[in-house]
Amino acid sequence: MDQFLAFTVVGLSTAAIYAVIGSGLVLTHTTAGVFNFAHGAAGMLAAFAYWQLAVGWGWPVPLALAAVLLVLAPAFGLLVERVLMRPVQALGEAERLVMTVALLTGCIALARWVWDPNTARPLVPFFADRPALRLGPAAVTWHQAVTTAVAVAVAAGLWFLLHRTRAGTEMRACVDDRALAGLTGADPLRAGRLAWVLGIQLAAVGGILIAPTVALDAQQLSLLIVSAYTAAVFGRLRSLPLTFLGAVVVGLLEAYLAGYLPQNAYLPGLRLAAPALLLLLALLAFPHRRLRGRDRRLVPVPLPGRRGAALLAAAIPGLALVLVTVLSEDSLVPYGAVFSLGVVALSYVPLAGFAGQVSLCQLSIAGIGAVVWGHLGAHGELWALPAAVLVTAAVGALVAVPALRLSGIYLALGTTAFAVILDRWIFTLPAFDVLGVRIALFDQGSVNVTGPDLFGLRLTSPAQLLLLAAVCLALASLGVAALRRGRFGRRLIALRDSEAAYATLGGRLLGAKVAVFALSAGIAGLGGALYGMQLQTVTADQFNLVAGLPIFLIAVIAGLGSVGAGLFTGVAFVVPTQLLGEVGTWAQDLSALLIALAGMGLAHSPGGIITRLRTAWAPLARDRPLLGAAGAVLGACWLLAALDAVNGWLSLAVALAAATALRLRATARQQGPGETPLEWWGVHRPWRPEDGEVLSRATAAG
User: Fold this and answer.
1) Residue 593 backbone dihedrals phi, psi, to 5 degrees
2) Residue 304, C-beta contacts closer than 8 angstroms, at least 6 positions apart
3) 184: which residues sit within 8 A by CB, 6+ positions away?
4) pLDDT band at 389; cut points 50, 70, 90
5) 223 and 420 Cβ atoms separated by less than 8 Å
6) Which of 80, 474, 513, 553 could form a disulfide with 599 if both were Cys (CB 3.0 to 4.6 A apart)?
7) Consecutive H or E run containing 379
8) Which of 13-22, 37-46, 91-100, 422-431 has the lowest mean pLDDT?
């Protein structure tokens, strides 16, 4: 009984922290209509800032707390609301989701960049020098008592704010009808600012309270928010009392599993994954209109032409050939991931771009493809590659189960929970038997992966594996383009536009969702197998949730409806990371930070950058003489680099500069007199004799 009480005390103190963080999530969501995936990252940054002030610089604890909670946290909340969230408020729910995912990635990268993750930063609990309080046979530390008192104070304060103050009434009115609240004198912008400030402050309180009990690690602290997600879903994202009840359930569950879970090799990960399992169950068990997604602004899905798809499919192996001939053998290993990770990124196109189903677990599914190939294709058996695709497709069909009830941010929550379950439990399991079949994943370590035996030719060198990945990406891109032009692709877009209309007109939601999830998972599994071949040894950490977020962000930046998103993502993810990595290991976090900042610029191009690039370069593609000249320049630069006559990066810079100049020339040649502003005549197009009279009349009229 004493042990039970001790675990109960620990569980309730942890539940108090989850309640504080979860209440901030609910407050932000109900007032601003945004589910903040970066909520835990904000608490993580607050914990690091508190350590820096109190421990690193030796400030008094009260002064450090005041600086973090009353200055830094409110300033960060105002910054997020004004700079990041307000520009996308008029966009759809998916854009706001991407913005918070970008903020999460950026916060983790910033923390790793500023605070070296290899340095331990312990935090002392509050009042650690005082003897514990006695609650019958159980001992309660002062830190646990303070945590519980803070949770009670937060609950009372939020209730008073929302029900007894004008600001709280304004906030609740803006939730019900933002426009109508504005007509009655309320200020929706002020209510949103207040919600973000309070939400970030509550995240900061939770981060500071939980930091002394766990390692001060950016990724671990940010993902502790999964437990707060569960508490918020218990409250159906609108009820603070139910959120506190959900926090108690999660906290007690974690404590009792830690104390009473049997000790064997298969169950330790279950305790770590328990909040994610509970989150997935809560999402499925609490059907509600708010859990089916809210407003969204649909972005047109471009229709790839046969000529354009063929050019893309030809350009991918061409780029691979250039890399093979220009780069050294050592450089081919890291740069070879351009095409394999491009295949993983391509899996987002049919799933999120065509069908509108948000998934954050694609890289985790790719990890399954890598280990299936590693075990079944240990000696290069080619049949193991389609086997890896089929296994991951079956996993994708399993992931489709929550998609039958959820959409939007709630489907993103479900796939996040699935990725965390894989990271913390499934990928940590040792080998086991199911009906006499030996199942082995990472087997609590790493898996050796080799290249395939392609009709008697064993592909083992980095150059061979890079070319194989490029061919697979080209074929997969052709397949996705054909899918978009076909009947099933049109059905997926209809499904994205309106599930209710799709079902009303005779479409089968179950079949369509299972099919698209299985298809995208199969593509991701293929990419994971190719990525594993290039790495030769894979571990679970290479396929976790946080590692997959930058790939998702770049695919969104590229344009989830564009077939070229796979190649664009592979290049944009790998090349800057490798270039910055040559500067120093610290620069790799800078690369992730830059990706996050690019994701935060989504409001300026919600349709994706590929569409803008296609429009910008279309004049050159239509001008055959200039297009031929561009091809000749690119070929000459490649030949000089291949012969080591000039530096590879110099030849690349010259090729890009020449191509850009030819594009501008083609644009100027194809613009008519009425299409170019008067002030640019003679600059963007040649000056003509009749232009003088036109210009004189325009000046006289002004």
Assistant:
1) -65, -40
2) 312, 481, 484, 485, 562, 563
3) 173
4) very high
5) yes
6) 553
7) none
8) 91-100
The sign one gets for the Cα dihedral 581, 587, 593, 594 is negative
Q: For Cα atoms 193, 48, 418, give the angle at the middle one, nearest 5 degrees.
A: 75
How far is the C-alpha of 225 from the C-alpha of 203, rounded, in Å?
Answer: 9
In which residue are the tokens 């300033």 written? Answer: 75
CB atoms within 10 A of CB 127: 13
318 Cβ contact list (under 8 Å, min separation 6): none
Compute the distance between CA of residue 356 and CA of residue 481 in angstroms, rounded to an integer.
17
| Mean pLDDT confidence for 324-336 | 81
Matching residue, tokens 């901030």: 24
Task: Please tell me the predicted confidence (pLDDT) of residue 617.
Answer: 80
List the beta bridge partners of residue 83: none
Q: Tell me the C-alpha to C-alpha distance, in Å, between residue 37 and each of 24, 107, 541.
A: 12, 11, 21
Tokens 């000089």: give the residue. 640
Query: Which two three-digit tokens encode residue 690?
Result: 């009749």
**Three-class SS of residue 288?**
coil
Its sign, for the CA torsion 489, 490, 496, 501, is negative
d(CA 492, CA 487) in angstroms, rounded, equals 9
- First vs last C-alpha separation in the chain: 91
Q: Which of 14, 30, 54 is nearest to 150 (CA)?
A: 14
pLDDT of residue 53: 94
Residue 75: both structure tokens together: 């300033």
Q: Are 207 and 47 in contact (CB under 8 A)?
A: yes
Assigned token pair, 638 = 């490649």
CA distances to 57, 125, 142 from 129, rounded to whole Å, are 21, 9, 9
Give pLDDT tens digits for 557-575: 888 888 999 999 999 898 8
Q: Which two tokens stand for residue 345?
A: 């990124």
Between CA 282 and CA 4 the distance in angstroms is 26
Nearest to 661 by CA among 653, 651, 672: 653
Count other Cβ atoms within 10 Å, centred on residue 518.
21
Contacts of 380 (CB under 8 A, 6+ apart): 450, 451, 452, 453, 458, 459
